[in-house]
C-alpha cells in the first residue's frame, strides 16, 4: 500500500514551485491532495498541477483561498472535510516576499508578508489541529492524528538585509513549538520543513524544484509517525568520549555528536525528544567554526571542530539532518556521563 493511501492533504500555495512539487509527491504516495491557490490569476497553474496528478493516476482537487484571510481558510477546511470526511496532512507552504530597504519598507509591505507567511500558517495549522482533535487517531491510516509541515527558510535564523519582513515571518515560526501537546494520541507535528535544494531554488521557479528530493525528505521525516523508523546510520553521528565537564542543576547526561566529515554545504541538525518537541537546532556551515545553535539556549553546548557535546535528560531523541545529507537518526542519550549536582 502506498504510504499515504486514503490520506487527505491540503498543500497551501501549491499551484507553483515547492508546493506543486510537494502536491505531486504526496499524490504519488497515494494521498488525495487539495491544491490551494490564492487568486484567479493562479487558477490556470493550479489546473495544470491537478491535471498532471490526475494523468499520473492520482487524486486532486483545487480550492481557491487566501491563507491570510481567516474566513477563506475556514471555508477551505470546511469544503475539504465536507467532500472527503477529514484532513490528515497540512503542508503550510504558501509564502511570498515584498522586499525593500528597511528604512523604505511600508507598513503595507510588512503586514502583507507577515499576513501570508506567518498568520497564514497559524490560521491553517489551527484549523488542521481542530480537525485532528475532533477526529483522533485512525489507526487504519496512520499512527498520527495528523501531520503538519511548515515551510521555513534559512532566514528563520539568518538575518537578511532588505527582507526584514520575510525574515521576521520565518523567524516567527517558533509558534510551531507551541502546538498543543495532544495527550493520549500521537500527533506528528513535523516542522523540519527546509531543504538545501529549496534554498537554491529561485522563489518563482517551477522547474528548479526537485520533486524527488522533496519526496525523499518528506518520507524520511514522516516515516517516524506514519511507518517504520529509518535505519540508524552510526557512521554519521556517534557518541564520543566524556571529555567536557558541565555543571547542572538536574541529572543530565553528556551526549556527543561527531560529523564524520565537514559538510560540503550548509546543513541543519534538528534534535527533538520522543514527543517530537524540538530541543535544539544547529545550523552548520562548511567552516566548522561557525556553528550557530538556536532553540533552548539554556542547554549547554560545547563545539570542538566536528564534535559537539550537548547535555540532555536521559531518554530517546531524534536528530534530523537537512541539507545534502538528509537523514533522520534516532539515538538514545544513555548516560555517557552523569552530571548530578
Ligand atoms: N525557493 C526557495 O529558495 C525557498 C527558500 C526558503 C523557503 N522557501 C519557502 O518555500 C515556500 C514556497 O516557495 P516557492 O519557492 O515554491 O515560491 P512560489 O512563489 O513558487 O510559491 C509560493 C506559492 O504561494 C502562493 N501564495 C502566495 N500568497 C498566497 C496566499 N495569500 N494564499 C495562498 N497561497 C498563496 C503562490 O500563489 C505560490 O503558488 C514559501 O513559504 C517560501 O518562503 C523557498
Sum up the structure in keywords.
single chain; 341 residues; alpha/beta; Rossmann fold; Immunoglobulin-like; 7 helices; 28% helix; disordered C terminus; binds nicotinamide-adenine-dinucleotide
Structure description:
This protein has 341 residues and is of the alpha/beta class. The chain folds into 2 domains: 8-226, NAD(P)-binding Rossmann-like Domain (Rossmann fold, 3-Layer(aba) Sandwich), CATH 3.40.50.720; 252-339, Immunoglobulin-like. It is 28% helix and 25% strand. It has 7 helices and 15 strands. The chain has helices at residues 17-28, 43-55, 70-84, 107-135, 164-171, 196-199, 211-226, and strands spanning 8-11, 32-37, 59-64, 89-92, 147-151, 188-193, 252-258, 267-273, 278-284, 291-295, 301-304, 307-312, 315-322, 327-333, 338-339. The strands form 3 sheets. Strands 3-2-1-4-5-6 form a 6-stranded parallel sheet, with helices on both faces. A hairpin with a 2-residue loop joins strand 11 and strand 12 (307-312). Helix 1 (17-28) crosses helix 7. The chain starts with 7 loop residues before the first strand and ends with a strand. The model is unreliable at 181-217, 219-249 and 336-341 (pLDDT under 50). The site of nicotinamide-adenine-dinucleotide has 27 residues, from helix 1, strand 2, helix 4 and helix 6.
Amino acid at each position: 500500500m502506498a504510504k499515504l493511501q486514503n490520506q487527505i492533504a491540503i498543500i497551501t500555495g501549491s499551484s507553483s514551485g515547492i508546493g506543486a512539487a510537494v502536491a505531486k509527491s504526496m499524490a504519488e504516495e497515494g494521498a488525495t491532495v487539495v491544491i490551494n491557490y490564492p487568486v484567479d490569476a493562479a487558477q490556470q497553474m493550479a489546473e495544470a498541477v491537478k491535471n498532471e496528478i490526475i494523468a499520473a493516476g492520482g487524486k486532486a482537487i483545487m480550492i481557491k483561498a487566501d491563507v491570510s484571510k481567516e474566513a477563506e481558510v475556514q471555508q477551505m477546511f470546511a469544503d475539504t472535510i465536507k467532500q472527503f470526511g477529514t484532513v490528515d496532512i497540512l503542508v503550510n507552504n504558501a509564502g511570498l516576499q515584498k522586499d525593500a530597504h528597511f528604512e523604505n519598507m511600508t507598513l503595507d509591505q510588512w503586514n502583507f508578508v507577515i499576513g501570508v507567511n506567518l498568520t497564514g500558517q497559524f490560521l491553517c495549522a489551527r484549523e488542521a489541529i481542530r480537525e485532528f482533535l475532533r477526529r483522533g487517531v485512525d489507526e487504519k491510516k496512520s499512527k498520527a492524528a495528523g501531520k503538519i509541515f511548515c515551510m521555513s527558510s534559512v532566514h528563520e535564523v539568518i538575518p537578511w538585509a532588505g527582507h526584514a519582513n520575510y525574515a521576521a515571518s520565518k523567524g516567527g515560526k517558533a509558534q510551531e513549538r507551541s502546538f498543543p501537546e495532544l495527550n493520549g494520541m500521537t500527533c506528528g507535528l513535523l516542522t523540519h520543513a527546509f531543504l538545501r535544494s529549496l534554498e537554491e531554488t529561485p522563489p518563482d521557479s517551477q522547474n528548479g524544484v526537485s520533486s524527488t528530493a522533496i519526496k525523499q525528505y518528506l518520507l524520511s521525516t514522516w516515516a517516524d509517525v506514519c511507518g517504520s523508523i529509518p535505519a540508524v546510520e552510526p557512521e554519521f553521528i556517534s557518541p564520543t568520549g566524556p571529555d567536557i565537564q558541565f555543571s547542572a542543576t538536574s541529572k543530565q547526561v553528556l551526549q556527543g555528536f561527531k560529523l564524520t566529515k565537514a559538510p560540503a554545504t550548509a546543513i541543519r541538525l534538528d534534535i527533538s525528544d520522543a514527543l517530537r518537541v524540538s530541543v535544539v537546532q544547529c545550523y552548520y556551515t562548511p567552516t566548522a567554526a561557525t556553528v550557530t545553535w538556536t532553540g533552548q539556549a539554556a542547554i549547554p553546548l560545547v563545539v570542538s571542530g566536528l564534535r559537539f557535546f550537548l547535555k540532555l535528560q536521559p531518554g530517546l531523541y531524534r536528530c534530523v539532518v537537512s541539507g545534502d545529507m538528509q537523514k533522520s537518526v534516532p539515538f538514545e542519550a544513555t548516560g555517557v556521563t552523569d552530571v548530578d549536582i
